TrEMBL record:
The keyword Hydrolase does not apply. Gene3D superfamilies: Vaccinia Virus protein VP39. One of its GO terms (molecular function) is N-methyltransferase activity. It comes from the Bacteria. GO terms for biological process: methylation. Keywords: Methyltransferase, Transferase. This is Adenine-specific DNA methylase. InterPro entries: DNA_methylase_N4/N6, SAM-dependent_MTases_sf. It comes from Streptomyces malaysiensis.
């Protein structure tokens, strides 16, 4: 999924939840930092909730 105006990364969060690839673009560095932090938080939460493989 390509989001040329990604802002805070909400589309990226939805894409990740659906198992889709995501590329977000935004001109403002502050939005990039915010979106990256949100995606990292979500990735950690998903990793914590997954069942370990035996």
């Amino acid at each position: 999924m390509l989001d040329p105006f990604s802002g805070t990364g909400t589309t990226g969060l939805a894409a990740r939840q659906l198992g889709r690839s995501y590329l977000g673009i935004d001109l403002k560095p502050a939005f990039h930092s915010l979106a990256a932090a949100r995606l990292q938080r979500m990735t950690r939460q998903l990793a914590d909730t997954e069942d370990p493989v035996d």
